[in-house]
Design a protein that fits this description.
Elements: E1 11-15, E2 29-38, E3 44-52, E4 63-66, H1 72-77, E5 83-94, E6 113-116, H2 122-132
Antiparallel strand pairs: 1-2, 1-6, 2-3, 3-5, 4-5
Length: about 140
């Protein structure tokens, strides 16, 4: 198992997002890092938000979309297709090769990082986050 260098909040990464508790998903998908921490051995952990290219025409309040129409912001994301992220579907994972893989095209050499959430899209993400975390 390989641990990757510590990411930054707002990084978009290539993740084997779990479909069942504790089991890496069957295929890599984009995920948005929203929190970073470390375990007792100082190994990095991250909280990631699920990303999908499916059902983009149906956007719930806890979701936000990054799309090609966003221009330069889409390019910064490193995404290949329009993608929505769902704050109701997030998980904390070790930032290691069990859960994360080298991004397609490897823009960040042997790292899972695809790109970043552009500053002008943060308000869009925050609105979805706030809706998902309402009491």
């Amino acid at each position: 198992m390989k641990y990757f260098s510590v990411p930054t909040n707002g990084d978009i990464v290539w993740c084997l997002f779990p479909e069942a508790l504790g089991i890496p998903g069957p295929k890599p998908r984009p995920a948005l890092i929203i929190a970073i921490g470390a375990d007792s051995k100082n190994k990095p952990f991250v909280t990631v938000v699920y990303g999908t290219t499916k059902k983009l025409n149906r956007l719930y309040p806890s979701e936000f979309k990054i799309e090609k129409a966003d221009g330069a912001s889409f390019k910064l994301s490193g995404l290949a297709a329009d993608t929505k992220f769902d704050f109701n579907h997030q998980v904390k994972l070790p930032y290691c090769s069990t859960w994360f893989g080298s991004a397609p095209g490897q823009p960040f050499l042997n790292q899972p990082k695809l790109g970043v959430l552009a500053p002008n899209l943060v308000a869009r993400a925050k609105q979805a986050f706030d809706h998902a975390h309402q009491a």
